[in-house]
Amino acid sequence: MASLSGSRLAVRALGRYRSALIGVKNSANVQPNFQKFVGPGRIGSPQLCTQRLQQIRQFSISAAFLEDRKFTKEHEWISMDDKIGTVGITNYAQDSLGDVVYVSLPEIGKKFFEGDEFGTIESVKAANELFCPVSGDITEVNEELHDHPELVNESCYEKGWLIKLKVKDPKKVEALMTEKQYEDFVKTMA
Question: Whole-angstrom Cα distance, residue 190 to residue 35?
Fold first, then answer.
């Protein structure tokens, strides 16, 4: 049998585990042989298999999401949905800041030009300004960050977004850095 990668092995084990459960679902013998899945030298418990699959799925989803984002030299990102841009800080920025303890965001309806400061983010290490990647009008702010600023650290590309704005010129977004260009930019900073 060919060698399997960790993810394929986890998928196969979880499939076997689920099949065993389905096979005994309506049976009088409700105890499947769990040692087959959990014993010494095995992949691990069904819970570990499920966790591994979730990690793989999360990595795949995150990687796909990053392809649609554009990045700035100030370490902000923007993703577009029609003419609405969602803005946040990059993983590099949140990692450099450390534990985020406070985020100050603008009022809805406020207008900003490219490069304008639209807020601040404070961590246990420092306070930094947040800069608008493109010109636009604020349509929404992430209210969750008022009570849970740690979301920026936990999920900077999803739950930790900062603002949404109606972008004046969507072509300006295309002029920003791609993920690969941003990664190369970060490498030059080291």
Answer: 49
φ, ψ at 183 (rounded to 5°): -60, -45
Contact between 159 and 107 under an 8 Å Cβ cutoff? The reply is no
Contact indicator for 62, 26 with CB cutoff of 8 Å = no
pLDDT digits (tens, 9 = 90+) for 102-149: 999 999 999 999 999 999 999 999 999 999 999 999 999 999 999 999
Q: Please name the amino acid found at residue 138.
A: I
Q: Which two tokens stand for residue 41?
A: 């030298």
Verdict on whether the full-model pTM lies above 0.85: no
**Which residue is listed with tokens 């984002």?**
69
Closest among 98, 94, 107 to 157, alpha carbons compared:
94
CB 89 within 8 Å of CB 105: no
